[in-house]
Amino acid sequence: MKTLNPKDYIGRLFRSNNYGSFKIVDFKNCNDVTVEFCDTGYIRCATLNSIRRGAVSDKTYQKLREDNSKLYRVWSSMKSRCDNKKSVVYKDYGGRGIIYNAQWSSFVNFLEWAKQADYKVGLDLDRIDNNKGYSPDNCRFTTRRVNSRNRRNNSVLGSCIYKQSKNYLVRVYKNNKLYNLGTHESVELAELVRNEFLSDKALGGY
After folding, report:
1. pTM of the predicted model, to two decimals?
2. What is the DSSP letter of 156?
3. What percentage of the chain reaches a pLDDT higher than 90?
């Protein structure tokens, strides 16, 4: 990288290794400058050498990450599923074209959306349509049970029939209660068991 002249680079964007983009807003001398981070507005002094190495940190970002550590892990996991080809689940996400909204490459932006979406510790990030990516109009926070029922690999054949290897598992969720109705050799038999159960429930049975 060519030697930086601070006067020539005032206003130009640079990127840190872990804290997003920042710009040079002023210079003190040929080695020291003042930078401002784009996501948080945090202003600090930095050396040209640290800028070259991407080693400029943002204390405001660090505090946001510490104060919202569980949500930060949710965000990091989302990005890893889409970006990290070494992830064991990449084939089900990034490998089949699932991406995240460009604005969500910033944790600060994701945090702001999460607050508006009523995030609470313990909730999962869930895509409403599993064939679409992570974006404000396709994501919500749900309980783990709801999220697991919405996963693509559940192979749901009906409201409560799941394919498991060579058999079909029947489950019914009713009034926050889970009923396990066993596994069956064919989908037709599974549907029969389910329908009889729902019919009996309607008549006051079970």
Report:
1. 0.62
2. B
3. 42
